[in-house]
Fold Exodeoxyribonuclease III.
Amino acid sequence: MKIATYNVNGVNGRLPVLLRWLEETQPDVACLQELKAPQENFPLQAISDAGYNAIWHGQKSWNGVAILAKGEIQETKRGLPGDPEDLHSRYIEAIVNGIVIGCLYLPNGNPAPGPKFDYKLQWFERFISHAQGLMARGIPVVLTGDYNVMPTEKDVYKPERWLDDALFRPESREAFHRLVSQGWTDALRKLYPDETIYTFWDYFRNAYGRNAGLRIDHFLLSPDVDERLVSAGVDKQVRGWEKTSDHAPVWIELK
């Protein structure tokens, strides 16, 4: 079973890239972030024609998350619990092939400090609480998406330049490490503990060409899913396609 995550940076504007990637790589499940489309403008027909069922949580102009699957999807949650006044479309959860899959788009948080950074940390706390509840149930869970956090210096090109950025500030990294310490496995780091791996390259200053990237798209696996992990990787070449997202898809394979 192949599960992927991809911040598409606009599902309609980059639909040709998304469809090409789905056709070439054929993931069984694909979690998407930054749809940047209201609920009614999700390109369901094109996704269906590509062979996928879909659930999505849209939002005009910003945010938005979706889960695509070749098989049946049973939606279990829409929106992150803990703040009924939070209207951002940043979390959707479903059961696919007996696995609970949470697809998330964690807030960026810049500029930091400030209200946006406060919101990022508050959202993070709610997510940590929700993840703890999932872990306590002892069920197979995959939590994947754009976490907007580089957990360690190995996950960022020239870390000294990012010290004041919301994605690399100590508060963000500490929250991520607290999350992982509940018992989750960072899939890419398990398989590639020492390699330089990036999942995002800015559009500016030839970042992709220089491989000046960040690792901010992550897979966290519950213990029984971790036992089934056989491979993982980044479809880096997709970042080099025309009119592509600034993120590359990330994937895992489970036996």
In short: Residues 109 and 116 are 5 Å apart (CA to CA). The helical segments are 15-25, 44-49, 115-136, 170-180, 187-191, 207-210, 223-226. The mean pLDDT is 98. The chain is about 25% helix and 25% strand.
